[in-house]
Amino acid sequence: MRLLRRIAERTRKPQSLVIREAIAQYAAREEKLSDEERERLLNVLRDISTQPVTRQQADVDRELQDIRRARRTGWSRPVG
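Given the sequence above, the corresponding structure tokens read:
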């Protein structure tokens, strides 16, 4: 609390604002990927991109069109 009060006095900001700014900075820092995590995800993408094609492009296009149509009209779980 002493540190919070000193920072608030030094910056001439309310303590609540100092806390909000600190949380925002912490959140921004935590949302960034570490170098190891970024490399792991890139390796996954590289592995996926080297896999052979298993479906025809027309089938993929049809499925994407169905998904877009369902999103526009609202989705409900099929019965059965």
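The chain has four helices and no strands. Try to locate this feature in the token string yourself.
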